[in-house]
Amino acid sequence: MTKKDVKKIECEEAIRMLLEYLDNELDEHNHDSVEDHLHACRACYTRMEFESRLKNVVKEKAQEKAPIDLRNRIKKISEQF
Q1: Confidence (pLDDT) at 78
Q2: How far is CA 78 from CA 66, 74, 75, in A?
Q3: pLDDT computed for residue 20 by the predictor
Q4: All domains of the chain, ordered by start, with CATH?
Q5: Nearest 10 degrees: CA dihedral of 9, 14, 49, 38?
């Protein structure tokens, strides 16, 4: 994908896709669009930095695994979407 093929997006759309971006769950086109926006928008870049740090803190602090019945209920609910 060339630079000119990257779709320009507004802050609202970038923020909406931010968590998927951080989790590397976006397709290449959307990933590149968010990344391009983050390079140009200081406010969204700051939000990305905050979300990234928060995600890492939660990951470090989460020592206990959820009980198996809770994990199974969450999995069942997520499969409905």
Answers
A1: 86
A2: 16, 6, 5
A3: 96
A4: 3-79 (1.10.10)
A5: -10
Q: Residue 44's closest CA among 53, 54, 34, 55?
A: 34
Q: How many CA atoms lie within 13 A of 14 on its CB side?
A: 23
CA distance 11 to 66: 34
> How many residues are there in the chain?
81
Let me know the angle formed at the C-alpha of 56 by 65 and 76, rounded to the nearest 5 degrees.
40
Would you write out the chain's pLDDT as a tens digit for each of its 81 residues? Answer: 455 578 899 999 999 999 999 999 999 999 999 999 999 999 999 999 999 999 999 888 887 788 999 989 998 888 887
- Retrieve residue 58's tokens: 């939660």
pTM as predicted = 0.69
Q: Which amino acid is at 45?
A: Y
The pair of three-digit structure tokens given for residue 18, joined into one six-digit string = 């931010």
